[in-house]
Amino acid sequence: MEVSKRDGKYLLGKQATLSSSIAHSDESLSFFSSKYNHLKHCPQIVYNHEINNNSIEVTVIAAKGISPTIEKVNVEQSGSGNQVGTRLAWGCRINLADGKNFLITTQIEDTTEGRKLYLYDKTKAYGTFNIFERQGQQVTKHFNLL
User: Fold this and answer.
1) What is the pTM of this model?
2) Could you read off the pLDDT of 9-29 as tens digits, one per residue?
3) In which region does residue 121 sit, left (phi positive, over 0), alpha (psi from -120 to 50) or beta (all else)?
4) Which residue of 3, 18, 58, 146 lies most exposed, with the fewest beta carbons within 10 A?
């Protein structure tokens, strides 16, 4: 499979696009064997990221013709209006065409002080892991996974 880089995204042959929230990446070759002892060179994408205390990053593989962008979103604790750090809550938005996006939210630790409701990109979320399908800011589907 041919791998090429364009506009910060990798094109995986003619089949897919790879996007990541990690900015620094390198390409290299590694070995792969689909049959015993038939080694071939295979392109490899390596993302490099410094981890300070904790880190959450997102990588998306999309079908050909779909070119998603990934943005980390601001998270506020309900009632306070204050932004919270990634130790309490984290979220990202995967933007597709025509205003459609997916908002992914995590609340890593249970909140013991203040309200347990958080606002991710102005969308209310409660629970450990949520996926919102949205059109602009309007939620069209909600999956509460944990």
Assistant:
1) 0.74
2) 776 777 777 777 776 677 666
3) left
4) 146
